[in-house]
Amino acid sequence: MIVPVILSGGSGTRLWPLSRKQHPKQYLNVHGKKSMLQETILRLNNLPDTKDPIIICNTDHRFIVGEQMKEIGFSNPKIIIEPVARNTAPAIAAVALQVKEDEGKEAILLVLPADHIINDIVGFHRSINIAAKNAKSGALVTFGVLPTNANTEYGYIKKSGSLNIGSYRVEKFIEKPDKKTAEILFKQDYYFWNSGMFMFKVDNVIKEFNLHANDILKNILKSVKNASYDYDFIRLEEESFKSCISKSFDYALMEKSENAVVIPLESDWSDAGSWTALYDINEKDTKGNVIKGDVIAQDTSDCFIYAEDHVIATIGLKDIIVIDTPNATLISKIDKSNQINKVLKKLESIGREEQLLHRKVHRPWGWFDSIDNGLNHQVKILCVNINSKLSVQKHLRRSEHWVVIKGKAKVLRDDEIIELNKNESTFIKIGSKHSLENVGNEKLLVIEVQTGDYFGEDDIVRYEDLYGRL
């Protein structure tokens, strides 16, 4: 059996401000009708002998993953939580050990990052079938992409002799090259881009970890054995996981293994890793523009313009990126957009939160959107999912007014239970123990007006919580 493993722990910072650390690109609809995570899973449909996927992500994203999985029909998804970020080698080791326990050592893992774009599903499946044959024979398989340009944003793989139809031994891995080196590699026909996708048998990859990265394997084995079950999640034990060195799977195993094999990917591919990459793969108008949202482009060419919240009008632009969101806007030359990290470091250094959060913030019960704020007030729209409930809590520095604009709510206010329907309201004074629950058959929308002298999310004292956040 093939067990798909979806690596979903990335932060997607190069697509800021659309992608934020608390809601990165893999959970956004940047290219298709669904999120990149959902598209990654759905493209496995009709692949023979395939189990339901396992998703590994960090703790901040666990409820987003759960909600998005349920949206595409997985009512009880298997989600493994990394306590801290430690790159791909510890993550893959953890899933391999978990699958060995659940499915046995002969299971084949298909490891896929959650943020790739692949449109040719037939070609993708054909490559997977070739890779599976090699994996059954003991190979650690990686998927190589035929380069279409001298790209410096990807690592490269050099192939050597052919093993059988459609597969080659790996001669060496090459880190992301400079422009001159990339141009040399692009002109030669035995180099691939490194896609970061893998396939191997569980028993074989554990043996390779034992041989080449035993320190990682020992710590991860402890972390898996002492994992806890939290809500719908498998939460890896923290101390052992934190003891692991942060290392990529390529560096830890693939570059050292004598069993590394590369399969050419028989389909289009992009990791959507930058605004230039997204510009390249998106459909363009007659003037070379990629236009998303409510945009009026006058005398504008070869630009990427994204309007999320309101109309954007441009005049006389060329080779420019304009990405507008409700609380942050990026304006950059296309060839300078790789410097976004400098902006994010600056925001962090001055204590801003725009590198972390959108104006709309997702929570396990739904989301809230901070639509206005001032010295002594803040206004939010709350959306509470069906059968969901905010924690029983109190605030020490703010009061709250709630007005229901859609759905049916049950409110706890100290010792009182109140039911509110559309157009009805209540007041929660400072220090009152309270909660808000959706008891209707549709999503609950509430306008919340906060008044006080502090509105930070850390002014919450929780008493009860369905989602393990006490």
Describe the structure.
- The chain is of the alpha/beta class and 470 residues long.
- The chain has 3 domains: 2-264, Alpha-Beta Complex (Spore Coat Polysaccharide Biosynthesis Protein SpsA, Chain A); 275-346, no CATH class; 360-464, Sandwich (Jelly Rolls), CATH 2.60.120.
- It has 11 helices and 28 strands.
- The strands form 6 sheets. The protein has a 6-stranded antiparallel beta sheet with strand order 18-19-20-27-22-25, with no helix packed on it. Strands 5-8-6-7-11 form a 5-stranded mixed β-barrel.
- A hairpin with a 3-residue loop joins strand 19 (366-373) and strand 20 (377-384).
- It starts with a strand and ends in a 6-residue tail after the last strand.
- The relative contact order is 0.11.
- The mean pLDDT is 94.
